[in-house]
Write a structure and sequence with these properties.
The protein has about 110 residues and is mostly helical. It has five helices and no strands. The protein is about 85% helix and about 0% strand.
Length: about 110
């Protein structure tokens, strides 16, 4: 679960200072999830890896460990060229990104 108060404190910002980052992070996550979905649909593991990598970075910045881990796992799978595991890991990323976005929308 994402906690904006803890995440802001972890990087030394007040919640007020952190709030604009949350809005930008939500936009970026939505854009990258759309790109991951396209990559999955087209079998473009390079695009999946690139966009999962960016999502991993955004989630890490926010301290959203479940989303970061899901993005990392899919990124590694895509880089390794393992299309058989990609759907399972993609489903996990969809779930974790959805949870994070719901939290960001409430923050």
């Amino acid at each position: 679960m994402f906690d904006a108060v803890s995440a802001s404190a972890d990087i030394g910002l007040t919640l007020e200072e952190f709030a604009p980052l949350l809005t930008k992070a939500a936009v970026e996550i939505r854009l990258r999830m759309d790109a991951v979905r396209r990559g999955m649909a087209e079998g473009d593991l390079r695009a999946v890896a690139l966009n999962s990598h960016t999502m991993k970075s955004v989630a890490a910045t926010l301290g959203a460990e479940a989303a970061r881990r899901a993005a990392f796992d899919l990124e590694c799978c895509a880089k390794g060229g393992d299309p058989a595991r990609s759907p399972e890991l993609f489903a996990e990323l969809e779930l974790r990104a959805g949870e994070l976005l719901a939290e960001l929308d409430r923050a």
